[in-house]
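Project outcomes to date are best conveyed with an example. Our students and postdoctoral researchers have been running inverse folding experiments weekly, and each run begins with a structure described purely in tokens. The record below, which covers 86 residues, was selected by the lab manager from last quarter's runs and is presented without edits.
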């Protein structure tokens, strides 16, 4: 966890095309994920870039988790739909 303006090395791996930034909504947001993050981080590590990406995913579904349980479900769905299960 950090709140630097620079993406971490892991962030650069996750967003290689933009050098570690998530650039969709407005201003580029640095990904501050660590190697310990889930493959599809939902911003639990305080990474704003991944958090926004996750929020957009929820928004597209019209799903706005209000409780911790709903949030966990949303994250589960987020990962389940985008990661191949082994
Ligand atoms: Zn991230
Ligand atoms: Zn993360």
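After processing, the design step wrote out the following sequence:
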């Amino acid at each position: 966890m950090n709140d630097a303006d620079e993406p971490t090395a892991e962030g650069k791996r996750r967003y290689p095309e933009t050098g570690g930034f998530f650039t969709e909504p407005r201003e580029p947001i640095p990904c501050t994920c660590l190697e310990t993050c889930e493959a599809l981080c939902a911003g639990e590590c305080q990474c704003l870039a991944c958090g926004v990406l996750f929020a957009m995913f929820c928004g597209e579904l019209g799903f706005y988790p209000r409780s911790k349980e709903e949030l966990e479900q949303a994250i589960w769905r987020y990962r389940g739909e985008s990661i191949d299960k082994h």
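The first strand starts at residue 21 and ends at 22. Residues 11, 14, 31, 33, 41, 47, 49-50 surround zinc ion (ligand 1) (CB under 6 Å). The training component of this project remains on track.
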